[in-house]
Amino acid sequence: MAKPVHAAVPVIGAAVFLAVACNAAPRPGGTSTTATTDTATAIESATATAGASVSAAPPAMIKVPDVSGMNHQDAQDAMQAAGLYNLREVDSSGKKRMMIIDRNWCQTGQDPKPGTVVSAGTVVTLYADKC
């Protein structure tokens, strides 16, 4: 039968969570801790508690704003202000250029069309060309 292996698990940004879950204070300057059954049990318990509070609410529906003629940065800001964060950008000239400085690009189109009602996770494609 194989022996159980105790491995060091990196703790990056979760030191406080593990300290609370393990009922111990975090080690100053430490970046790792040894995983134990108590830690795993505490994490599973916390995960189950968090999952229990999630409701099955329908996704938010958002009206797509009209960003035609705006510079690309303002168009992105308008989409995000409306609650649309899954944005894709395309060079409408067909040259496949990258939009490095967004304010130097002007909107030439968008998909879905302005006024369309979509869910918050919908991909919105912004077409732009150099101003």
Features:
single chain; 26% helix; PASTA domain-containing protein; alpha+beta; signal; 3 helices; 3-stranded mixed sheet; 131 residues; PASTA_dom
Q: Short summary of the structure?
A:
This protein is 26% helix and 24% strand. By secondary structure, it is of the alpha+beta class.
3D structure, described in words:
- The model is unreliable at 9-21 and 31-36 (pLDDT under 50).
- It is globular, with a radius of gyration of 24 Å.
- The strands form three sheets. A three-stranded mixed beta sheet has the order 4-7-5, covered by helices on one side. A two-stranded antiparallel sheet has the order 1-2. Strands 3-6 form a two-stranded antiparallel ribbon.
- The protein has three helices and seven strands.
- With 131 residues, it is α+β, with helices and mostly antiparallel strands.
Taking all residues together, what is the mean pLDDT? 77
Structure class: alpha+beta
**Low-confidence sequence ranges:** 9-21, 31-36
Count of alpha and pi helical runs = 3
Helical fraction equals 25-40%
Number of strands: 7
Question: What fraction of the residues are assigned to beta strands by DSSP?
Answer: 15-25%
Q: What best-fitting shape do the alpha-carbon axes yield?
A: globular
- State the major sheet: 3 strands, mixed
With strands numbered from the N-terminus, the spatial order across the biggest sheet is: 4-7-5
Tell me the Rg in angstroms: 24 Å
Task: Tell me the series of helices and strands, N- to C-terminal.
Answer: EHEHEHEEEE
How far apart are the termini?
A: 70 Å
